[in-house]
């Protein structure tokens, strides 16, 4: 993750640039059910959602960890708006790098949720 330290504020979070996003990191990030749930909610929301929007069955520190894994893999972008940390799906980057991948994963996750009665 390359970021010019002279232009970053203390509240800026490091994100991989478009060219730095790796399929292996994205696959790892999406392999966890909690992280997949976050991505599914962001895909449905279509816009930015605050961390507090998500009702996850884990502790706050574990939730923070899951968001960090998604951000560092390039799956989501996180920015501060006031005191809220907002999360958005990096759909354009993922669709450009891996055409059809995200839609396939989301469709498969939705079918699985129906199959498992979630």
From TrEMBL:
Transmembrane parts of this sequence: none
InterPro entries linked to this entry: ArsR-like_HTH, HTH_ArsR_DNA-bd_dom, HTH_MetalResp_TranReg, WH-like_DNA-bd_sf, WH_DNA-bd_sf
Record keywords, A-Z: DNA-binding, Transcription, Transcription regulation
A GO MF label: DNA-binding transcription factor activity
Domain HTH arsR-type: 15-109
Superkingdom to which the source organism belongs: Bacteria
Designated name of the protein: Transcriptional regulator
């Amino acid at each position: 993750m390359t970021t010019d330290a002279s232009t970053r504020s203390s509240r800026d979070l490091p994100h991989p640039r478009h060219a730095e996003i790796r399929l292996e990191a994205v696959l790892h990030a999406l392999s966890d059910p909690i992280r997949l749930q976050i991505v599914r909610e962001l895909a449905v929301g279509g816009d930015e959602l605050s961390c507090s929007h998500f009702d996850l069955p884990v502790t706050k520190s574990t939730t923070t960890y899951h968001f960090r894994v998604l951000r560092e893999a390039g799956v989501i972008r996180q920015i501060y708006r006031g005191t809220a940390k907002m999360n958005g799906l990096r759909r354009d980057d993922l669709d450009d790098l891996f055409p059809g991948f995200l839609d396939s994963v989301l469709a498969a996750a939705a079918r699985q949720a129906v199959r498992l009665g979630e």
